[in-house]
Amino acid sequence: MTQYTNTNAYGCSASCVKSVNFSSYVKNVLPNEWRIEWPSNSLKTGALAAKMYGWYGVYYPLASPVGAHVYDDTRSQVYLYNTERAATTTAVIEVDGIGLHRKDNKALFLTEYVAGTSGSPGTQSSGRVSQWGSKYWADKGWLPYEILGYYYNGSSKVGGSGKEFEFFNY
Questions:
Q1: CA-CA to 147 of 20 to 30 Å: which in 4, 35, 120, 125?
Q2: pLDDT digit string (tens) for 84-139?
Q3: Which of helix, strand or coil describes residue 136?
């Protein structure tokens, strides 16, 4: 379960905190953060980034001032109830059971991402996945671990130059 502050007021008369099944949360974030028509490897990259962002928020609440794990808007990631789509749900299912953490100390890190620019790979080792960059690399045949590595490896998120993230199974 994850808790989010419900600024969209689904089932609330005003802003409130709601709990939702974690898998459902990610399935209703991804289509609002990545374009559903993008290649599968871009969507899987997004699914991993969105999932681990939410997971980080469970352990280190990003919306603690309002008593929630994450916000449901651009302060965290956009969660909109009942926006799940087939292509993005497939991506979430295909990365189920896979997480990522710092290789050196196994710590979770905040898997941030940004929109980026169409046709651009984005900045290597920036610690932030470029959404458009994930499409750029997926179009070139890159796999999600290669795409995530381009942005996270060597970044401050994983400990700086020469440091990497790794996948783990849960």
A1: 4
A2: 999 999 999 999 999 999 999 999 999 999 999 999 999 999 999 999 999 999 99
A3: helix
pTM (predicted TM-score): 0.92
Surface-to-core class of residue 122, CB atoms within 10 Å of its CB (0-12 exposed, 13-18 middle, 19+ buried): buried
Give the whole-angstrom CA distance, residue 121 versus residue 133.
4
The terminus-to-terminus CA distance of the chain in angstroms comes to 16
**Closest by CA position to 66, among listed 118, 14, 106:** 14
DSSP 104: T
Q: What is the separation of C-alpha 153 from the centre of its chain, rounded to a whole number of angstroms?
A: 16
The pair of structure tokens assigned to 102 is: 């710092």
Burial of 47 (0-12, 13-18, 19+ CB in 10 A): buried
